[in-house]
Amino acid sequence: MNTLGLAPALATIVRRDLILALRRRSDVLTTFFFFVIVVSLFPLGVGPEPAMLRTIAPGVVWVAALLASMLALGRLFASDFSDGTLEQLVLSPQPLVLLVMAKVLAHWLVTGLPLVLIAPALGLQFDLPAPALGVMTTALLLGTPCLSLIGAIGAALTLGVRGADALLAVLVLPLYIPVLIFGAGAVSASAAGMAVTGHLSLLGAFLLIALVLGPLAAAAALRIALE
Amino acid sequence: MNWGSAQAFFAMGGYAFYVWGAYGVAAACILVELLVLSRRRRTLERDLSRKDADGSSGQT
Amino acid sequence: MAINVWKYASPQTFYPLAGRLVPWFFALAAVLGVVGLYIGFFVAPTDFQQGESYRIIFVHVPAAWMSMFLYIVMAGWCAVGMVFNTRLSFMMALAIAPTGAMFTFVALWTGSLWGKPTWGTWWVWDARLTSELILLFLYIGFMSLHAAIDDVRRADRAAGLLALVGAINVPIIYFSVKWWNTLHQGASVSLSRSPSMASTMLTAMLLMSLAAWMYAIAVSFLRVRAIILERESGSDWVRGLGSAAA
Fold it and tell me: What residues in C contact A227, CB-CB < 8 Å?
């Protein structure tokens, strides 16, 4: 029996997860619409005054992105866990860390990337200036993969646990805070005309750390959950 | 000695509410922690002695 | 005589040792606490700016220090447990968590009561209080995850991994919050004392911190004894205890 090479194995996982996600399009779309609705709730809650909306916009968009990201995490491993695929992945000869990374990539492509693409339109609702919208897109592009990578740890830890969704929130949201601070900070700085390189560099650094440590911790958590 | 009288001590220069509120809650937390622990201990002792009394391993 | 460090890694041998040590740690905590409070209230002078309200630091700062210290110790025991596969290590981590959370809550509550007369609001979003709040979330997460998983071994390891992930994140979170605070508040509004603290204040604070530490050890030992009994209840030595207690 042939063992699949590493690159083809990873490509297979990404392709499979994408196909499965597209088959259950409603799952993907609900995350997206959740994001849009939550962002729209804030002006209804605090009033339509443009100057204030411009001030709260970065925070609102980012918090909504955090929540939407977190909601989607439940689906990262759950269906594979219930049908036994996850065990096969853990037992396979390819390094679990890379397999996890492939799964997270596929997950981000369907849940994180849509948020990045729609965010500028939502920023316009809050009357953010154009440069700030560009910064928001970049920051979310750097930040949402972090959220998926960190969230994967929480998803792996809570596999099959009762009340996993609420528990996941408690576990993962505190870990999201640095990404939130610098992501929203970048957009605020841009809207105020200040430099954003510091914020974006830090977000980039967080992404690199999350890329290395996230799948590592998530793989360890999967092994704990499955043994 | 900082305080002229017991009254001055309890008044804490007008900040009595804050100072005693802080220390009071801290003391209450410690008390609650100890009470919860002792209740846990008593339940355990009761269960263990009951287990031994009827000679079984406690399982039905 | 060689000391066998692994001897007390067994719950059965640690249980009586912990039981003998608990009264001593409580005694130390009581003595240090009484002396610390005496110096704090009767020897340390009134603060020039804050009046008597500053005396809250004698409970706020020790609680905050212990909350952070206990988290590190808890994460340390989780690491030991995962590396050496010793179940007592995980029991110890689980025993420490509620006390750590309690100290975190006390730090937040006393911090709030200190902030109100000093800065006029019940909550101050300074870097340290905000980090304390996040630390409380981390403790709650640890305890919730452990409680939610039925299989004890899996619960120990999953919560252990979470504690380690949290420990790595704490410096990152603290740095981020600190940056966020200076950006948004401009002039630093901090609950830290100015460097020129009277030596009596420092002494009282240190004594209270030591008292808190001794108390934490005593309570953790008490709790780990309860956890040991609960988990090892099927074993012979525990049943032997039961007949002795009856």
Answer: 154
CA B5 to chain C, closest CA, distance in angstroms equals 12
Q: Do chains A and B touch by CB distance (3+ pairs < 8 Å)?
A: no
Place of tokens 């200076």: C182
Q: Which of residues 13-72 of A touch C (CB under 8 A)?
A: none
Residues of C in contact with B27 (CB under 8 A): none
Does some domain include residue B44? yes
Output the pTM of the full model: 0.90
Does C168 contact A175 at a Cβ distance shorter than 8 Å? no
Q: CA A210, C66, B21, B14 torsion: positive or negative?
A: negative
Q: Please report whether residue A220 resides in a domain.
A: yes
Minimal-distance CA residue of chain A relative to C150: A161
Domain of A214 in residue numbering reads as 6-226
Determine, yes or no, domain membership for A1.
no
* pLDDT per residue as tens digits for the range B1-57: 577 788 888 887 888 899 999 999 999 999 999 999 999 999 998 888 887 666 555
Residue C47 DSSP SS3: strand
Q: Which amino acid is at C77?
A: W
CB contact under 8 A, C41 and B9: yes
Convert the pLDDT of each residue in C174-189 to its tens digit. Answer: 888 888 877 665 444 4
Break chain A down into helix, strand, coil percent, rounded to 5. Answer: 85, 0, 15
Residue B3 lies in a domain: no
- At least 3 CB pairs under 8 A between chains B and C: yes
Q: Which of C113, C143, C221 to mutate to test the interface with B (most CBs of B within 10 A)?
A: C113
Going from the C-alpha of C35 to that of each of C38, C67, C134, C171, C212, the distances in angstroms are 5, 22, 32, 33, 13
Residue A146 CA to residue C101 CA, distance in Å, equals 28
DSSP C68-117: HHHHHHHHHHHHHHHHH--HHHHHHHHHHHHHHHHHHHHHHHHHHHHHHH
Amino acid at the residue C95: A
B39 in a structural domain: yes
Pairwise CA distance, residues C106 & C90, whole Å: 25
Number of domains in chain A: 1
Residue B43 lies in a domain: yes
Complex ipTM: 0.88
